[in-house]
């Protein structure tokens, strides 16, 4: 199988958990240290080998698109003032990487958002990165670990991949939990590990949780998932759920979960965002 070169990043959400900040500033552009959160997510994808970034965006959040565009006037002014290094830092994407945007006009769920990227992705395998989840760029190698590992596994096996992380028993009710062939309690390790997955249970109580492996927010899919998304009927509230299409894909092709190496941060919740900001700022400069 081909290694994926496309990635879909859904950015159209209103960020209600981050109000009132997100009323004026897209939550994806809130800083973690000296860069916005979305910068790290895109950098992760590019480092893993992605060449085509598809932002599924909303008309009110065009600032995200602008961040990845070239501002020729600003570049020229900086260079005229001798600030070449600063100008270079603004154009951080490699020349062979493109960022395009498609619109999700109505908030009809994550599955619907992913489906909007089909016009760009076509019949190619692709990754999905949820921008609320920011992986640690300081303790892991994005060129080898996590998403990069998942992409390699897909190329070798042809099976779709989902990143998971062991969570405490007290937290299993907060997440989608992987159901494996055996009920296992996996310990956090320093390497990525793969397991065959039979399905997922959404926010189970501890007594019925099939494992302690929680979905993190990184996926690698075969293009067939678009067909299942197109056929998925809206749930209560009119949303098209990604999990429904994942279940269908598992039944037809099988799927693996990959345990995450290193920590992740929820940049879409105010409390955990502040914790993430402090950590990222401390990595940028010891004087923080």
Shape: globular
Average pLDDT over all residues: 92
Structural class computed from helices and strand pairing: alpha/beta
Helix content: 25-40%
Radius of gyration: 19 Å
Instruction: List segments where confidence is low: pLDDT < 50 over at least 5 consecutive residues.
Output: none
Give the SSE order as H and E letters: EHEEHEHHHEHHEEHEEEEHHEEH
Which fold name fills CATH's third level, the topology?
Spore Coat Polysaccharide Biosynthesis Protein SpsA, Chain A
CATH superfamily: Spore Coat Polysaccharide Biosynthesis Protein SpsA, Chain A
- What's the oligomerization state? single chain
**Whole-number count of domains:** 1
Q: Largest sheet, if any?
A: 9 strands, mixed
Q: What is the CATH first-level class name?
A: Alpha Beta
Q: Walk across the major sheet and give the strand order.
A: 5-4-1-6-11-8-12-10-9
CATH architecture: Alpha-Beta Complex
Number of DSSP strand runs: 13
Distinct helical segment count: 11
In terms of DSSP E residues, the strand content is 15-25%
Give the CA-CA distance, first to last residue. Answer: 46 Å
Keywords: Nucleotidyltransferase, Transferase
Catalytic activity: alpha-D-glucose 1-phosphate + UTP + H(+) = UDP-alpha-D-glucose + diphosphate
Pfam families: NTP_transferase (PF00483)
EC number: 2.7.7.9
Would you summarize the structure shown here?
By secondary structure, the chain is of the alpha/beta class. The protein has 11 helices and 13 strands.
């Amino acid at each position: 199988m081909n290694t994926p070169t496309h990635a879909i990043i859904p950015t159209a959400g209103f960020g209600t958990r981050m109000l009132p900040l997100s009323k004026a500033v897209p939550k994806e552009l809130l800083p973690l240290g000296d860069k916005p959160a979305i910068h790290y997510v895109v950098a992760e994808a590019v480092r893993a080998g992605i060449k085509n970034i598809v932002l599924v965006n909303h008309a009110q959040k065009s600032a995200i698109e602008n961040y990845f565009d070239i501002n020729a006037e600003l570049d020229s002014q900086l260079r005229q003032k001798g600030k070449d290094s600063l100008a270079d830092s603004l154009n951080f994407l490699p020349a062979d990487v493109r960022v395009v945007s498609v619109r999700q006009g109505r908030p009809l769920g994550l599955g619907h958002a992913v489906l909007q990227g089909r016009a760009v992705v076509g019949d190619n395998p692709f990754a999905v990165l949820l921008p609320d989840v920011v992986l640690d760029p300081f303790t892991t190698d994005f060129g080898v670990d996590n998403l990069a590992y998942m992409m390699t596994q897909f190329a070798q096996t042809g099976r779709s991949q989902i990143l998971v992380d062991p969570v405490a028993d007290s937290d299993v009710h907060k997440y989608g939990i992987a159901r494996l062939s055996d009920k296992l309690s996996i310990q956090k390790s320093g390497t990525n590990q793969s397991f065959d997955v039979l399905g997922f249970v959404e926010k189970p109580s501890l007594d019925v949780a099939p494992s302690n492996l929680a979905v993190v927010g990184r996926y690698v899919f075969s293009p067939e998932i678009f067909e299942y998304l197109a056929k998925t009927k809206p749930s209560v509230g009119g949303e098209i759920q990604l999990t429904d299409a994942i279940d269908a894909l598992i039944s037809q092709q099988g799927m693996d979960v990959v345990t995450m190496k290193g920590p992740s941060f929820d940049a879409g919740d105010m409390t955990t965002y502040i914790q993430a900001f402090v950590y990222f700022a401390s990595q940028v400069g010891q004087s923080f």
